[in-house]
Amino acid sequence: MPIINDNLQRGIVFALTTALIGSTAGAATKLIASDVPISVIIFIQYSLCLLLILPNIIKDRQQLHTSQISTHITRGLAGWLSFLAYFYALNEISLVEANLLRNTAPLFVPLVLFIWGRQLIDKRRWFPLVIGFIGISFILSPENPSNGVALAYWVGLGSGAALATSMVGTRRLSHTDSSQTIMFYYFALSTLCSLPLAVSDWQGLPALDTWPYLAYIGVSIYLAMWSYTLAYSYAKPSVVAPISYFSVVFSGVLGWILWQDIPSTLSFYGIFLVVCAGAATLAMPSATQDAPIQINEIK
User: Which end of the chain is more exposed for a tag (fewer CB within 10 A), N or C?
Assistant: First the structure.
């Protein structure tokens, strides 16, 4: 049997940790969404992240310097919109379907690269793209008995498209800016964008029993970025990235345990096709994917 080296093992463990953190944070959001407005959850989430990163920025203010303000804005808005759409979908549809739709991001990345940078789509990527979007059509199909709230499914899909834009922006920024710089501008911009919505939806302080969930949701982004960065520092993206789809498995288990959610047969087919297509897209070797990634980069 082939021996897996220590670095690859660490990369896989950190990638699985990222998937688990993301799934549990989604479950925590769904658990309190009926008690705390989505806009307030998002504002608290990003405010906590901003507070966590501020000490590092104050300690080294040079990290505020960047030559890519416009890219930071695009990446920040895309990341914020992705979470806003994802949390909205979570409140309306099952955890596994919302998570799956957000994880369609790899299928949108080639399209984002073409629109943003006029980068042509590799011929090898067309087949998994077509398979992936067929799977999406199964999940969005009006014949799908679990698709009772059609808008939420489309919003969830929009979360995946926005996340793809965020991923491309982050990759561009990682060539010139540190992970601390990228995260600070992302958290700061997202906090500012969330504030007006949170104020308009404010219904008083959230109930005491929701604060542990709110705290975990906020800290989870920071933890997920940390573990994801470490995963990519120990192993190639073509090995680590497909593991992100384990979050769909984790979400399915959590959804079944907490809400007895069982996707319809059509949804299962769609999930299978999207996961296979996304994993195939991510695993394709390319100059940009398998280039060495430094510990201070963030994906």
Answer: N
- 129, 172, 135: which is closest to 153 by C-alpha? 135
The CA distance from 226 to 247, in Å, is 17
pTM (2 d.p.): 0.85
Contact 267, 140 (CB under 8 A): no
| Residue 82 contacts residue 159 (beta carbons within 8 Å) | yes
SS3 for 217? helix
Integer-rounded Cα Rg, in Å, for the chain is 19
**Residue-level length of the chain:** 299
Amino acid letter, 71? T
Whether 194 contacts 80, CB under 8 Å: yes
Which is nearest to 74 in space by CA: 198, 192, 159, 168?
168
Handedness of CA 148, 276, 78, 123 (dihedral sign): negative
Residue 97 to residue 85: CA distance in whole angstroms: 13
Distance CA 293, CA 174 (A): 9
Digit-coded pLDDT (tens) for 94-139: 899 899 899 898 888 888 988 887 777 777 778 888 888 888 888 8
